[in-house]
Design a protein that fits this description.
Blueprint: E1 2-3, E2 8-9, H1 23-38, H2 46-52, H3 55-66, H4 69-74, H5 78-85, H6 90-95, H7 100-108, E3 118-122, H8 123-135, E4 141-148, E5 154-156, H9 164-169, E6 174-176, E7 189-193, E8 212-216, E9 223-224, E10 236-240, E11 245-246
Parallel strand pairs: 3-4, 4-7, 5-6, 7-8, 8-10, 9-11
Antiparallel strand pairs: 1-2
Amino acid sequence: MSSDNNNITSSNGGDQSPFLLSKADLYVMLLLLHSSTSFAPETDSANEMSLALTDDTVEETAEELSADANDTVEQLSTDEVAIIFSSLTPKDIMRARVCKAWREAAKKTLVPLTKFVKSVRSYKAMRAIRVMSTALPNLQQLSICGISGIGRKNKYSDGEDPDEENAQRTASHRAHDINIISNFRKLRILMIKNAPLNGRYPVLFNFQLLQKFSIKECLYLKFDLEMLGGLSSLKELVCEGNQHMTGNSGV
């Protein structure tokens, strides 16, 4: 297992695919992260302190902490665990939801803005977003793309005033509810590209904290630039290749 402030991954031998971390591992991880937020290192930099920790010392530290990990971690409040979770990636936070208290902490966690962007580009990813919409509602970045999958084709449910010809052509496709993203009330970055959207979707224009909005190559998505009035925090807008965009670009 390797860890830093942003990633916690486990692998088995040569297989680099991550698996669910044990509760004991998570206890030790939380204790180490909690300690790092409680005091400043006495070294000149955090790098010096991390370099001073060899594999042996990390293992010894883990062994020492694991003895009383249960008692110590269980003393942390849900809010404190949420603060610690905010140092992790969304994927690792989802892995860490191993008990009821930590599931509640995940719901309170404000996922930091990082290079990570949860991208909806497959049926599996769509299912993951459906779970995260309630398990991790404070996600701040989201990318919505085409939905690939084996067998039956996929699309998002038709919106208001859809293109009738396209609606008939895709009538047999498996439909997914795009409205679930409304649960992500803390979204600050939303990117939509080549998404199978058809019609108007007011839900896309109702994120009060959204700062960056990108819509590209959505051939059947209908929207008027005046709808941006609902995005009071918007700082950057990118629109390219959208055939049904209307309104004044100066809005």
